[in-house]
Design goal:
The complex is a heterodimer of chains A (about 280) and B (about 425). Helices cover about 40% and strands about 15% of the residues of chain A. Chain A is an alpha/beta fold and about 280 residues long. Chain A has one domain: 3-Layer(aba) Sandwich (Rossmann fold). Chain A has an 8-stranded mixed beta sheet with strand order 2-1-3-4-6-5-8-7, with helices on both faces. In chain A, helix 5 crosses helix 6 and helix 6 packs across helix 7. Chain A is globular, with a radius of gyration of 19 Å. The termini of chain A are far apart. With about 425 residues, chain B is an alpha/beta fold. Chain B folds into 3 domains: about 220 residues, Thiamin diphosphate (ThDP)-binding fold, Pyr/PP domains (Rossmann fold); about 60 residues, no CATH class; about 110 residues, 3-Layer(aba) Sandwich (Rossmann fold). Helix content of chain B is about 35%, strand content about 15%. Chain B has a 7-stranded mixed beta sheet, sandwiched between helices. The longest helix of chain B has 18 residues. Chain B is globular and about 70 Å long. The two termini of chain B are about 40 Å apart. The chains are: A alpha/beta (about 280), B alpha/beta (about 425). At the A-B interface, strand 2, helix 4, helix 6 and helix 13 of A face helix 2, helix 3, helix 4, helix 5 and helix 6 of B. Strand 2 of chain A pairs parallel with strand 9 of chain B.
Chain lengths: ~280, ~425
């Protein structure tokens, strides 16, 4: 992994236009934006050929800050818009930035179907376990018993394991990391951009101002420490005793397999049918 | 089109379009070509190449088929949709035809995903269309609003069925007239076209695609279920006679580009993703660069721009047919299939000596206010037959304040059956 200097990162920002950003102090979103930019820069991708798409929520404000073709869409629908872009311009790298509520609640349907099609999108799901922008309501990834403004007595619902959900739906690249593990995150983003097929990276992120405060997690540094101490790399899971793994965040590339990518399958179809007939009717 | 109008200048420009203007049969030298084909996409040139070689014959075809072939002839190269009666044939035909022509067909997981996918594809440079019916149209409303606020060209075909809710999926109704205008939250521009025949379904599909590209907005085509499924004999025009409008591409360098430039009657160039313009598109209220704003001045400017785009160009947008209106003292105002019944009723009535005429909007939104007001000035009574509980009649009442309420007569039916010529004839005799 190439080390990308800060100066290069700045070239990717729309800093003359849209800063200061909307995120709270201690929010992980900026760290993740940095990792995305470093991944793009170290791969030397053509900047005219990348589109960043997002939905609604704190994390989905990200595209406005990055100097690419960017699209800030409707709540939950980022993957559907991204599908349209990718299908029309299959050579474009399409990055989807989304949150836990955006992607797994209102957008859950689009997530599973894009995974099933195995369309080549890189979905970066920033999971802070809460709806931050609307002020702290519980999301499908809010842990059982955690406090949210719409679960003031503790959340009685079980939560999604987002990676299992994506794998169950057929995603061909699935990884999980945390906002603390920045280098790892950059590597996974790079791997997902190189992977031909649907990829999902779940980044466990800190929302100290809302989730942290409601659940007495301390400030941002304490939450970061928790990510460090409370997570286990996938490779170590089998070696560690069971009690040291239980309840921990498992980090790593959980799935990486090659199966037919959707735009490639469609291109094959076009080749097959356009050879010997074309618009014979009408 | 515009030149033709000015040559016949009268007080009311909309009336000049009184005689039906057939988009598809216009000569390619028509003046609107000024905005045409600055930079046609590769797939589009392949498409026209294929279609130029076709010999068009007279054939029997359904309204839904006509929509599909109209879309192809207009250069549509992207369709995303979800199956729904009575519009499914549009998707089925395009599923077969688009791949052959290098275009994209994708069946999405629902109608919400469909409108989102066509909007995304359009931003990437595609000419995009989807087709649905009432329930799907309701689901699409938020996405339609997004296409309108972000000024992204796309077309939604709504083959109306009886509602509310699941209603009667294979029965006709004209219940989405108001939804097509006001369905999305907030104030937004609306261009809605309404054909009365299979041939006109083809023509207005092309016009819908052209207007969406020219005005950078989501254009809705309303069909009646019976028009979608009715078979009529049509001869489609040769491709040389089909006028196709493509969006204007920017010629300025990227750092000068404004995604919402205010010039040329609020019609501004549109870059595509991948062109190197690095522009931002958001459903948030935005400034002319496309970045979100909370400033009252910029927010007001954006909303004004959306409104003026329609009001400044109303002469180009409105089409209305006037049928036997010259000496009429009773006017019928009807759209779509109901206007077909009205025409039959009028010929029966005229045989019996009653002076009845018909006004039929091809563009129902923006509503042809001036034309209707003028054309109804000299009639005593207006009959408004429609397959709903009173949607068009509200507009007619609004425009005929000079007339007594009892002179605005409704025929409304919402039981899955059509209004017949005899129903209208009976009403004509009642009001005389």
């Amino acid at each position: 992994m190439a080390n990308i200097p800060q100066k290069v990162v700045h070239q990717y920002l729309r800093h003359d236009k849209k800063f200061p950003h909307v995120w709270c102090a201690g929010c992980s979103n900026g760290i993740i934006l940095g990792a995305i930019i470093r991944a793009i820069a170290s791969m030397n991708l053509d900047r005219d050929n990348i589109v960043m798409v997002s939905g609604i929520g704190c994390s989905s404000r990200m595209p406005v800050y990055i100097d690419l073709d960017t699209l800030h869409t409707l709540h939950g629908r980022s993957i559907a818009y991204a599908t349209g872009i990718k299908m029309h311009k299959p050579n474009t790298k399409v990055i989807v930035v989304t949150g836990d509520g955006d992607c797994t609640a209102i957008g859950g349907n689009h997530l599973i179907h894009a995974a099933r099609r195995n369309i080549d999108l890189s979905v970066i799901l920033i999971n802070n376990n809460i709806y931050g922008m609307t002020g702290g309501q519980c999301s499908p990834t809010t842990p059982h018993d955690a406090i949210a403004t719409t679960a003031p007595y503790g959340n009685i619902e079980p939560n999604f394991n987002v990676c299992d959900l994506a794998m169950g739906a057929g995603a061909s690249f699935v990884a999980r990391t945390t906002a603390f593990h920045v280098t790892e995150m950059q590597n996974y983003i790079q791997a997902s951009l190189e992977h031909p097929g649907f990829s999902l990276i779940e980044v466990i992120a800190a929302c100290p101002v809302i989730y942290g405060r409601l659940n007495k997690k301390g400030g941002a540094p304490q939450m970061m420490k928790e990510f460090r101490d409370n997570s286990v790399p996938l490779a170590a899971v089998d070696k560690l005793p069971k009690e040291k793994v239980e309840g921990k965040i498992i980090r790593g590339i959980l799935r990486k397999e090659i199966r037919q990518e959707y735009t490639a399958a469609y291109a094959d179809l076009v080749r097959r049918v356009s050879d010997n007939n074309g618009g014979e009717k009408c | 089109m515009q030149e033709k109008k000015t040559s016949k200048t009268t007080k009311n420009p909309e009336v000049m379009q009184e005689k039906k203007i057939s988009t598809a049969t216009k000569s390619p030298a028509a003046t609107e070509d000024k905005v045409a084909a600055v930079n046609p996409a590769k797939t589009e040139s392949k498409l026209s190449e294929l279609q130029n070689n076709l010999e068009r014959k007279t054939i029997i075809m359904q309204g839904n088929e006509a929509v599909a072939y109209g879309a192809l002839d207009a250069g549509v190269n992207f369709f995303a949709g979800y199956p729904i009666t009575p519009s499914t044939e549009v998707a089925e035909i395009l599923a077969a035809e688009l791949p052959k022509r290098g275009g994209t067909f994708i069946q999405m997981e629902d109608e919400i995903a469909s409108i989102c996918a066509i909007t995304g594809a359009s931003l990437a440079g595609a000419k995009a269309l989807t087709a649905t019916s009432g329930p799907g149209f309701s689901l699409m409303q938020e996405g339609i609003g997004f296409a309108k606020i972000t000024e992204t060209p796309c077309v939604v075909v709504n083959v109306q069925r009886m509602g509310p809710s699941t209603g009667m999926p294979t029965s006709p109704a004209q219940g989405d007239i108001m939804q097509s205008r006001w369905g999305s939250h907030g104030d937004s521009p609306a261009i809605v076209l309404y054909p009365e025949s299979v041939k006109e379904s083809y023509e207005l599909t092309i016009r819908a695609v052209n207007l969406s590209e020219k005005y950078r907005t989501c254009v809705v085509l309303l069909l009646d279920e019976v028009i979608g499924h009715m078979r009529e004999s049509v001869r489609l025009p040769d491709m040389a006679n089909v006028r196709v409008i493509n969006r204007i591409k920017p010629t300025v360098p990227p750092h000068w580009y404004k995604h919402y430039d205010e010039n040329q009657k609020y019609l501004s160039p549109l870059a595509s993703y991948g062109d190197g313009y690095h522009f931002h598109v958001t459903g948030l209220t935005h400034d002319s660069q496309g970045f979100p704003t909370n400033k009252a001045v910029e927010a007001g400017d954006m909303m004004d721009r959306l409104r003026k785009k329609i009001t400044y160009n109303i002469r180009d947008l409105v089409q209305i047919e006037s049928h036997e209106m010259d000496d009429a003292n009773i006017a019928i105002f009807a759209a779509g299939i109901t206007a077909r019944a009205a025409k039959a009723a009028i010929s029966m009535a005229r045989e019996e000596g009653f002076k009845v005429g018909l006004l039929r909007p091809l563009t129902i939104w923006p509503f042809p206010d001036d034309a209707v007001r003028k054309m109804l000035r000299n009639v005593e009574t207006v009959i408004v037959p429609e397959l709903n509980q009173g949607q068009l009649i509200r507009e007619i009442r609004r425009l005929t304040k000079d007339k007594n309420d009892s002179n605005i007569v409704s025929i409304q039916r919402v039981n899955g059956q059509l209004i017949t010529p005899n129903d209208i004839l009976r009403k004509i005799k009642e009001v005389i």
